[in-house]
Amino acid sequence: MTFRDFKFETNLQEGLDSMGFETPTPIQEQAIPIIQNNKDLIGCAQTGTGKTAAFLLPILNKLAINPTDSTNTLIVVPTRELALQIDQALQGFSYFTSVSSLAIYGGSDGSVFERERKALTEGANIIIATPGRLMAHLNMGYVKFDKLETLILDEADRMLDMGFVDDILKITTYLPKTKQTLMFSATMAPTIRALANKLLHNPEHISISLAKPAEGVIQGAYLVYDGQKNALIKLLLAGKELTSVIIFVSTKIKVKELERDLQKANLKAKAIHSDLEQNEREEVLRNFRSKQLQILVATDILSRGIDIEDIGLVINYDVPGDAADYIHRIGRTARASATGVALTFINEWDQQKFLQIETLIGSEVKKLPLPTEMGTGPEYAPLVKVKKPFLKKKGFNKDRRPARK
Asked: DSSP labels for 30-58?
C-alpha cells in the first residue's frame, strides 16, 4: 500500500511526495480510512509508530477539499514540546495547501497571548493546545469553537497522569455536541477507557505494538550505585563518534549536575528542564535537531513529544517510575525501521521497578558488566513475587530474594 491509495487531494499529495512519504505505517494504514469516514477512534500506539501523520493527514485532506475560515479541528496535547512538534509536522504536510494552524501553550509573553487570542477569535483552521493555556483563553469568553468538527486528544494517558482530566472535560463543554472525536494513547488503562466512554460515540479501536519496544532497539542495562553513574556516562561517551544522545534523568537537580559534569569533560551536552525559559528550551532543541549539539540531558518532559530523527543512543540515568514510560523513553531511538541503542542504569533501589519493565516487555534485558576501572556495582537481586510454599523449592530465601549459590 502507498499513500496514493488514500486518494488525498492533489495539493496534499504533492506535499507528501516532496517529503518522501511513500508507504504508510500500520497505524496510518488503519486509522486514516476510519477518520476519512468520520468515525470516532481510539488509537493505542507507542512512540515512533507515525500516529501524528495518522490523524493530521485525513484532517488536512478534508480541509483541502472544503476550505473554511473558521476553526475546524482542535488538538489537545499534554506538553508545549508536543504542541510545537505537531504544528511543525502540520506545516510540512500542508505546505501546498491553504490550511492555517497555531500552537497554543503557556510560558509566553503578552504579544504571543494576543496572537493566540486573534487566532481563536478569527479562526485558524487547526488549533494545537495544551489544556491549561487553552482554559486561560476559554475563561475569557471570546473563543469561537461553534463550527468545530473534530476534537483530537493526543497522548491522553500522559494528560491524565499530569492531572488534566478536569480541564479536558471542561474544554469539551465549549465544543459542539456533534463532532468527530479521536483519542490516541500509548497505553489503555481503565482511566483512559473511562474517559473514552464519556467523550466518544461508538468508536473504532486500533492497537499497534502495545507495550513492546521497537524491534531495532538494542537494549542493555548496567548495575550501578548512584555515585558511579556520572563516571560511567563519561566512560561510555568520551572519545566516541557521537551523533545524537538523549539522557533521561528523574529530577531537575540531577539534570543540572550531570550537564555540568559532562561539560567539564569537554562533551557537547546541554540540559532541558522546566526552569529554562521557553525560548531557551526551543534553542536547545533546535541545536540538537541540527546536530550542533550532540548530547541532550532531559527530564521526563521529553520522554514523549519530541520528534527527532537519527537518535543513536538513549540512556535512562534512572529507571522510569512507570514501566510503560520505559517504552516511550527508548522509543526516541530506532524510529521506523532504523536501529539504535537504549541503556538503563539500575541502582540497588530500582531493581524491582526494572523487573516490572522486563515483565511488561516480555523479555529480559541483558545486564552488562561495568568497565573494570569502575569497580563493582550492586548485585541484581530484585524481589520476586512468589507464593511462600514454593520458596524453598524454587531456590528463594524467606525474604524472596534468590538464594546465593
From this structure: HHHHHHHTT--EEEEE-TTS-HHHHHHHH
